[in-house]
Amino acid sequence: MLLRSVSGMRGIVGKDLTPEIALRHAAAFGTLLKGGRVVVSSDTRPTGPMILRAVIAGLQSVGTDVIDIGVAPTPTVPLAVTHFKAKAGIAITASHNPVEWNALKFIGSAKSVLQPEFLDKLYKFADSGTLNFQPWDRLGSVVQTDEMINVHVRRILDLALVDARAVRRRRPKVVIDAGGGAAFRYGPAILEALGCRVTKVHCEHLPKFPRGTEPIPKNLKELGRVVRRVRADIGFATDPDSDRLAIVDETGRPIGEERTLVLATYWALSRNPGPVVTNLATSQAVMDVASGFGVSGYTSKVGELNVGEMMRKRRAVIGGEGNGGVILPELHPGRDALLGMALILSLLAHSREPVSAINDRLPMYHFAKKTLPKPADWKRRLERMKRRYIKEHYDDRDGLKVGFPDGWILARGSNTEPIMRITAEGKTPARARQLLIELEDALGF
Fold this sequence. Notes:
The chain is of the alpha/beta class and 445 residues long. It has 3 domains: 3-146, Alpha-D-Glucose-1,6-Bisphosphate, Chain A, domain 3; 151-361, 3-Layer(aba) Sandwich (Alpha-D-Glucose-1,6-Bisphosphate, Chain A, domain 3), CATH 3.40.120.10; 366-443, Alpha-D-phosphohexomutase, C-terminal domain (TATA-Binding Protein, 2-Layer Sandwich). The protein contains 15 helices and 20 strands. Strands 1-2-6-5-3-4-7 form a 7-stranded mixed beta sheet, with helices on both faces. β8 (173-177), α7 (183-193) and β9 (197-201) form a beta-alpha-beta unit. α1 crosses α4. The longest helix is centred in the first third of the chain and has 15 residues, at 19-33.
């Protein structure tokens, strides 16, 4: 099943996603853009080179010039779009999906996001539109460049919220686990530029992702062991396209992806108080941090495009998603693991406490989550859930979220996989588990 949403177009390669499909969508993208330049990149998946060639061919075929920045994090693409004065970009990555998946993610510039309406038009046009194929002497050109690693690092170091001087004075000992993904060069580069003493784990081009694609606690045991062995101050882990960041504290304990945005928000608001935006599935802890600084917090539908657009409307200082995605509009409107590292190291540089102590004194909640096959009648199940909780505060912008004084529940269809995600958050682990059981019952599972 080919999935198309605000998160891009993705599927299992050879089954749902073929070179022909990739080529047609890229050609449709170039046709709608009406010429100009498009930046392309890929992560380290073994299918990346094949899909990349198809995408480049599709863009060239409609007269679109291509700037190929090679294997690079997805968040590098909007910076490259702006740097090269291109119209847009395509990142070839299935992010956290298993290795057999791949995807085309359509990206705007460092200053603007592509609107959902444009993506809807793109998908319909790819299915049935007339592509603007050009004759042999009007095809688009291709330029390859590796300069974006230095551009991305420099842009982060220039941010007002990144105190590179303080980090360099402290010279923290950091372990970076890139999981064999696109951050295998970029992650160490930003850490070394900040003066860190760096130990690398899986910082090689490793297409089969040796520790799993998601930087979740069960996949970070080796990182935790290395952090303890070298007595590091902190450990960082990224997903295959480096838009998500997870943290291991100085004891080797994974503190959970949700805490990345909590820590980054705390640092950002301590220096520059202002509105905060998260998605509906993100921990209440972020909103509690915002409240502690006396600023407003807003939520959007899940998906960084939705978060970025809400941040623009609310003129947010910082925002993101609870999957480890930190967004700083001053840099670009997408999640960025390299940015997350720099912000959290700046926080550590200004604190006399280890990361475990900082994390433990910030607002804390607990999650219980499940993924379920998406039933054909899932919308009917959501209506059943709504009837059960009709007297409670609920939000139906993205599935159905119901709030309680001590937690919340959310049921929604995934943007990236053919599944339903059901989530509960509570002030205690027991309360989160109880809410999840009640949610399953309300949905009829």
